[in-house]
Structures are given as structure tokens and as C-alpha cells.
Request: fold
Amino acid sequence: MFRSAIQEKRSMHIVNQVRQAIMSGKLQPGHRLPSEKELLLQFGVSKHTLREALRALESMGFVEIRQGAGGGPVICEIDMENTRDMIASFLYFKNVSVPHLCEVRKIFEPYLARLAAERCTPEDIDHLKSMTETYRKSLKRKKTAVRDEVGFHVMLAKASGNPVMILILDFVNNLLTDLKGHLKPGIDFSEKVLAAHECILEAIETRDGQEAADRMYRHICEVEEGLAELLRNDEELAVS
Reply:
């Protein structure tokens, strides 16, 4: 299955070969890699280089290295959390801002709201209603519920059935969750979010795609303005 790794950056060539075998379907989740002895022969590398490559694959979420008898590297299914963490690591040094995130949301989420009005099943709509009701109850107890705010948007992405949309919106909204956790918006902010969600849900339920898209766009603009103001206040406090 594998060939000798070339001299330069041998561990990365091992990583790339294993990744390619996974992507091509030659290795499936649950499959065990050959024994260490066999891998050393196939790759033509030292134990140190092989173990370095396996640690890298494990950190990427491609393999799980199991201990004990019958252990060794086993292929894992890449889940949303691992993927999100890898993208977050890449973007960590890119100075991602609120306008950056909201620009992506303005492109995708009005379309998702329109799609939801066309495709959402009665069960999907009931789920959105339940999430909105849970959010409303939290606010009545004067508790903000960032996860419920974000969950509404993630649910719309999932209802699309498009895995690319789901990944993008899951990642963007999780960054917003972290940001809100830092800024701690007040009840007033959350009440505006709830009112917007109810308006969007109403348009989805009546199957008015254009109205759902328009309301979603306005909602994202309002959130962007609210978070920008909170950031300005936070920066002013930091320098005062």
C-alpha cells in the first residue's frame, strides 16, 4: 500500500501517504494500520520518524493510537469538532474580525433561510420552534443563552442537507460563540436576537423564502452592529 518515504521531511511524506489512502477509500474508519515492523519496511524509515508521523496523524484526528495487546494505530472518522479545530488553528494568526465573520454569514445565511422556507419538514420547524421556546424561557429567567442563539443558525444549516454549508456555518457560529463568551452581551442584545429569530421562523413557517432571506440579512447586520459596539467598549476599558 505504501512506498518508501523520500529523504527530506520523511515524516510528512508518511502523513501525506496515509491521508491519501484514507481519502481514496483504501483505508476506512476502524481499519488498523499494519504493524510497526511492516510500516518500517514499507516506508523505509527509522522508528523515530515513523512514530513522529503517527503522532502527527493522531493530532490531526486521522488515527487513534490504542495501547495494549492488539493496539496500534486505528483509522478514525474525522468529525466536525476535529475539522473545526484544524481550521481554527489555521485562522488563529489571520486576525479574523467580526466584519469577516458577518460577511460570510451575509453571503450564506439568507440563502439558507430561503432554502429552509422551501425544504424544512414539519419536524424541522417543530425543532426550530422548540429551540426558540427554550431560548425564550432562558431570557425570562434573565439568563443569556449563547448556545441557543447559535443553535438556531446551525439547525438551518443542517436542514439544508449540504455538508459544506454545515461545516462553514458550524465553524463561523462557533467562533461567534467564543466571541460572545468573551464580550458577554446583555439581556437586551439577546432579546433582539430572539425577536429576529421569531420573525425569521415565521417567514419559514409560511414558506415565504424571500421574506425569510431578507429578515435573516437584517438580523445579521444588527448582530454585527451590536458586537462591534461591544468590542469598542471592551477596547476602551482595556486602555482606560
Notes: The radius of gyration is 23 Å. The first helix runs from residue 10 to 23.
